[in-house]
Amino acid sequence: MQIICISRGGYGYSEELAAELAEQMGYPYLSRSNILEEAADFGISVGKIEVEILKKRPVTEALRMEAERYRAFVAARLCQKVLEEGNLIYHGRAGNLVLAGISKILGIRVISDTENGINNAMSDMNLSWPRAKRYVEDVEEDIKRWVKTLYRQDMENPFLYNLTLNSSDLSVKSAAASIQSVSALPEFQMGKVEEQAIRDLLLASKCHLELSGNENTKNLNIRVSAKNGHVSVNYLPGQAYLSENIPVVLERMKDVKSYVCTVASTNLVCIGDRFDPASEEFENMIEIAEKWNAAIDLVRIAPSAEKVDSGPDKTEKISEISSENGGILEESDSSPCFASDDSYGVQKAMDRLIKVGRAGTSHTVGGGEKNAADYISRTGDYSLVVVGDVFSSKDVSKARLKRDYINLLSDRFKVPVVAAEELKSHYLFGKMQMLSLFLTGFVSMLIYFCVFKFQEPILRFISAGQTGGDIKSRIIVSIVTAVAVPIIAFTIGGFYSNVLKLIRLE
């Protein structure tokens, strides 16, 4: 099984390349134009989405929901096709982003230098050089805006692709031959793990389409995920009155074994190689999720090889899971919590989250910490990344490795990345915060008192360094100001930060 996604960048021959590759390899081929027609027939307002994005209008809630519905349709169509045919070549705008969470997809971007793109546009559409230049630039900008709106990604980010081809220097046939060579590598050969991930995405997409198309649930702003037939649906707090209709819709779907519905405005993710739902850190994470109306996703990092329970009486040996495959390990489908081997605390942790109404999804990712980061970056938007127990199997300094890992994640994601043991000091109010509140409050009042009590001396001192003072006075005033201002700002800022934590307003 294999999926090859070809994305266009610049006015190149990406579509011709996809067709040529499909002919050479004998793979079924789908293009974005086919999907657009089918989506329109399905009742999705693709044209409206295009117009709103191209006109640079603000993204409304209704537009966002319709765009998510379109994404679900594309994902369902691609997953269904590859499961039926065994292989697939797709040409579209960053098609590999549609299939987020599925590893071993061969993502290719075809680019062209600006001059070559302009010449091609002039030849194809009989345009003058200025009009062809403007056309190529507008098309490129439109595609970037589309990818940014639908997938929240920068399509020029090279890490989104496995291979980038310059159509200015390479013929279509040569490009197709080079892709065939790369596609034969073991890193892009899908197995049972990837097939299950495709089935999960197909089920989640079908559930999203079913819920968004039902008269009683079409106005729900939802996030749907699935694992081995177990479905998780997150919805916004203000839509709780509609949530009672979700089970009615899901229970009619034959492939849904169980479901969990969670009210959530956003999602947090916790990474670790094991979870302890009885720990203080886990309780702190739940408290933050309750404050933020968030659902919690769990991502367990699996070592290179391990045993995973396949059922109550048998254990299946997972073959070598190297950093090359980055796959999601196969898990038991016996639990509605999407977890299998509870020696790592996944099932108990999910049960705890379900009990408090904060359950998102759980996944086990093979190949180490880097693959876990890659998986998170592909699968969704998070407001907070929490790093729990990691590097448990390492004999070296775990604290240093964990700090380096947090720094790596911080560089990659545009959201806070925090160690689980630091959650309380960053986001919650405890004994240390109470002590800090009193100390910073006392110092802040002292600062205010001194400023108002000794206004004239302070103003004379500052003005002495600006007008009429000698060079020595100016240097002294500059040094005192440079030292005092940050200290005052830190103290007063710390006081009000603790006050906001105390009243649960951040």
Which structural category do the helix and sheet elements fall into?
Answer: alpha/beta
Gap between N and C termini: 48 Å
Oligomer: single chain
**Biggest pleated sheet:** 5 strands, parallel
Instruction: Count all strands and give the number.
Output: 15
State mean pLDDT (0 to 100 scale).
80
- The total of helices stands at 19
**How are the strands of the largest sheet arranged?**
2-3-1-4-5
Classify the helix fraction into a percent range: 40-55%
Beta-strand fraction estimate: 15-25%
Overall, the morphology is globular
Low-confidence stretches: 305-341
Q: Report Rg.
A: 27 Å
Describe the 3D structure.
By secondary structure, the chain is of the alpha/beta class. Helices cover 51% and strands 16% of the residues. The chain contains 19 helices and 15 strands. A five-stranded parallel beta sheet has the order 2-3-1-4-5, with helices on both faces. The chain has a five-stranded parallel beta sheet with strand order 13-10-9-14-15, sandwiched between helices. Helix 6 packs across helix 7. Mean pLDDT is 80; it is low at 305-341.
